[in-house]
Amino acid sequence: MASRAPAATSRLLVGFRKWYYNACGFNKLGLMRDDTINEDSDVKEAIRRLPEQVYNDRMFRLKRALDLSMKQQILPKDQWTKYEEDANKFVLGLLELLCVIIYQRSIIQWIGYTFRITVTRDRQLN
């Protein structure tokens, strides 16, 4: 009995995720979950570093969604993005790129901070 509880909870959680995915409504415009990420400067840089095909597909989805939104329409149900199709491949790739960008910025800030300390010490010695 105890071994069935995690499986039931997992199925319940997957069911809730699918319901929430459809309730959000972005799939009705042909968008994927990653297309709705808030674009701060780090995310913009990560998107800029995406492979060209992934970037072009994303831009197509965004332009189509904007067009449908302006017309106050949605796609036919057979063209909606399905939960199973909306793979986390792009999100994981985006997260990896974000980690690289944040790491690079922290290194640059550290080098700049170290350089400022060195310059300040040199000026005090002279």
UniProtKB/TrEMBL annotation:
Show the InterPro entries listed in the entry: QCR7, QCR7_sf
- This protein's UniProt keywords: Electron transport, Membrane, Mitochondrion, Mitochondrion inner membrane, Respiratory chain, Transport
Bilayer topology term = Peripheral membrane protein
This protein's source sits in the domain of life called Eukaryota
Per UniProt, subcellular location reads as: Mitochondrion inner membrane
Please give the Pfam families that the UniProt record associates with this protein: UCR_14kD (PF02271)
> Which protein family is named in the record?
Belongs to the UQCRB/QCR7 family.
Please state what the protein is called. Answer: Cytochrome b-c1 complex subunit 7
